Amino acid sequence: MEPKLAIPIAAQPDDTTCGPTCLQAIYRYYGDDMALDSVIHEVKTLPGGGTLAAYLGCHALARGYAARLYTFDLTVFDSTWFDGAHVDLAAKLKKQRQYKKSRRLTSTTEACLEFLEMGGVIRFEDLTAGLIRAILKRDRPILAGLSATYLYRTARERDESGTLVYDDVRGEPAGHFVVISGYDTERRSTHIADPLLPNPISQSQYYEVTLNHLVCAVMLGIITCDANLLVLSPKKRGRPK
C-alpha cells in the first residue's frame, strides 16, 4: 500500500507565511507542538517578505531535526558540484558569490551557507516518482517549494497595497510551499496538504495533483527561488528539542 501521511496543516495567516505554516504542520506530524505564531516569528524572512526552504531547514536544525534539501536550482548550484566526487559546497558558494552580485543570489547563498554550517545536507537528484515514494515510505513528509502560478494554473500576481492580486499582464510568477503527504501509484498522483485556504484547486486543504503536474510546478519554482524539496527527520525518538 502506498503511504499517505496524516498532516495536520493550519491555514496560513497571510500571503507570505506558507513556508512557516508548512513547517509547523510537519512539526505537529512529529508530535512537536510548537505554536504557529512562534514558528512564523522565528523563521528568517526575506526583505520583500516570504522565506526560503534553507531558512525553514535552519529552524528545524536548531530544534534538533536532521534536514536534507533536494535542490533543482541551477541558478545557485552547478550540477558538476554533485557528480560523485567530494565537493565543498560552502566553498563553491562563497567563490561564486565573489562574481555574482544579484540580490536574489546573495540572499539564497546566505541561507544555504547557514543551512550547511548548521549540519544540513544538500542533494541534487532527478525528481522522479521513485524519489518521492522512497521518502514517503520512510514516513517522511516532503516540504516542497514550487510555483504557485503553475500548480494552480492561475494568472500571475502583483502586489497591490500589500495584497497579492491576480494580473495576467502586469503580474509575476508566484512561489509557494506545500507538503507532499502521499503518492498513488495507480493514479500516478500525489497527495498535497496546502496551507492556502481556500485555494484555486480545492475548497479543502487536502487534494491530489498528477505527478507530472507536481514535477513541473517544482521545477518552475526556479523562477521564484524555490525548486526544492525539504525533508526533515527527528534525530531521536520522541519530541525534538
Automatic annotation (TrEMBL):
Peptidase C39 domain boundaries: 8-77
Top-rank taxon: Bacteria
InterPro entries: Peptidase_C39
A Pfam short name: Peptidase_C39
Protein name: Peptidase C39 domain-containing protein
